Automatic annotation (TrEMBL):
Keyword tags: Aminotransferase, Pyridoxal phosphate, Transferase
Family the UniProt entry places it in: Belongs to the class-III pyridoxal-phosphate-dependent aminotransferase family.
Stored Pfam families: Aminotran_3
PANTHER family noted in UniProt: ALANINE--GLYOXYLATE AMINOTRANSFERASE 2-LIKE (PTHR45688:SF13), PTHR45688
Protein name: Aminotransferase class III-fold pyridoxal phosphate-dependent enzyme
Length: 455
């Protein structure tokens, strides 16, 4: 029997939850089941019917207001007026593909490349992070001459044929490619190693050696630098440097998947990889880039990209279209004008400090970690054993939903709350989130005590 997908199935609605829904919610879920493919999932045992968003807030069909602590699609905030205006203006003029000359894509590319290390000078555009990572794998194979790709044990990098083959988070129903190898996540909370960087580099070398033993030539290491699907694992700044050196020594490339840690989210740097002092060979982007408008990108060292692009034409009909690029340019401008990188660092630091205080009052909180507005809140049965408590995490998520706070879980055991609000999240929102978490943890603990008392 296939194992469930940690990113799709852990916090999801299932048929047995339908009895608790009101008539309208039941009608909609039944209609979805009838009309949409069965691969889709809804969040929560009692799904949320959202109809409007603004900044860090969302409203449901009943008019109830929610605090969004999960959404990095609308990264700078739901329905940001600057993005709306840019898309509306460009849509009135032209929207077409990249096989005609258009200045906007060139201006944006110059601007975007200006945020990256000087060694990265070329860009290509797609619509989704999956497409960007798919192309990155093709480039890695063309440049290295190999096929083997290394990812972390609970990685998620997309839904295409190539990217699903390097996404163990999709569950065993989606088999990994024979050329994929997994390394354990660099989890400082659980890994007992004096030097996390040296330990992780050694784990990558083990998998490269295993590839060689099976006649597979190594092509590259693909990772998001905060290891989001593995449970939000920022680790100490700089620890990835040794791993990247191992990758290069063995003829492979480092692909930095910046769909989640990029665009100012980590606060310490504009890009997640930058806090480690490394220069990737390829950088991929996705959701946050257009704040809800489908656009993604691949940025690369020219000599690495040339191994692919000198021989193989690439065309993506909607990738880099003027409307999507207008949205992306607006996002860059807003990040600068609103100081969102500094904001993420400062407000995220305040939030993490308050969560650490909360953890002192609740024995089931094992670890609070993160950087900027990207925080993992790990729940365990007890601190001594560090045994993951998935059931508690799922109950807490549902209790938060009752208090109009939206988030979900991550990690191989589904026991880490993934706190990743839009960058519009403000200091005054901290109390709502922390108070709701406090109530949820207290309520769940009391319910467990009650259940343990014999009738």
């Amino acid at each position: 029997m296939a194992t469930r997908s940690t990113i799709m199935d852990t916090n999801s609605f299932r048929a047995e939850h339908a009895a608790a829904l009101d008539a309208d919610e039941r009608r909609l879920t039944e209609k979805r089941s009838k009309l949409l493919g069965d691969s889709y999932r809804l969040f929560y045992r009692k799904p949320v019917h959202l109809v409007r968003g603004q900044g860090q807030y969302l409203w449901d069909a009943h008019g109830d207001k929610y605090l969004d602590v999960y959404n990095n699609v609308a990264s700078i905030g739901h329905c940001h007026p600057a993005v709306i205006a840019a898309v509306h203006e460009q849509m009135q003029q032209l929207n077409t593909h990249t096989r005609y000359l258009h200045g906007r894509i060139l201006d944006y590319t110059e601007d975007l490349l200006g945020t990256l290390p000087a060694e990265i000078t070329k860009a290509m555009y797609m619509c989704t992070g999956s497409e960007a990572n798919d192309l990155a794998i093709r480039i890695a194979r063309a440049y290295s001459g190999g096929t083997g790709i290394i990812v972390s044990q609970e990685a998620y990098h997309g839904t295409s044929g190539l990217t699903s083959g390097v996404s163990p988070a999709l569950g065993s129903g989606q088999p990994l490619a024979a050329t994929t190898r997994l390394v354990p996540a660099p989890d400082r909370y659980r890994v007992d190693a004096p030097d996390l960087g040296a330990w992780f580099a050694a784990e990558i070398q083990k998998q490269i050696d295993d590839m060689a033993a099976h006649g597979i030539q190594f092509a590259g290491f693909l990772a998001d630098s905060i290891f989001s699907s593995d449970g939000v694992l920022p680790g100490p700044a700089g620890y990835l440097k040794e791993a990247v050196e191992v990758v290069h020594r063995n003829g492979g490339i480092f692909i930095a998947d910046e769909v989640q840690p990029g665009f100012a989210r980590t606060g310490e740097a504009f890009w997640g990889f930058a806090r480690h002092g490394v220069v990737p060979d390829v950088v991929t982007t996705g959701k946050p880039m257009g704040n809800g408008i489908p656009v993604s990108g691949l940025l690369a060292r020219p000599e690495v990209l040339a191994a692919f692009s000198d021989d193989i034409p690439y065309f993506n009909t909607f990738g880099g279209n003027p409307v999507s690029i207008a949205a992306a340019q607006a996002v860059l401008r807003v990040i600068r004008e609103e100081g969102l990188q500094r904001h993420s660092l400062e407000v995220g630091g305040q939030l993490q400090a308050e969560l650490a205080k909360l953890a002192e009052r609740h024995e089931n909180v094992g670890d609070v970690r993160g950087t900027g507005l990207f925080i993992g809140f790990e729940l365990v049965t007890d601190r001594a054993s560090k045994t993951p408590d998935k059931a508690l995490a799922l109950d807490v998520v549902e209790k938060l939903r009752e208090q109009r706070v939206l988030t979900s879980v991550a990690g191989p055991h589904g026991n880490v709350l993934k706190l990743r609000p839009p960058l519009a999240f403000q200091t005054h929102d901290i109390d709502w989130l922390v108070s709701a978490l406090d109530t949820a943890l207290s309520t769940c603990a009391q319910q467990r005590r009650n259940a343990a008392v014999p009738a």
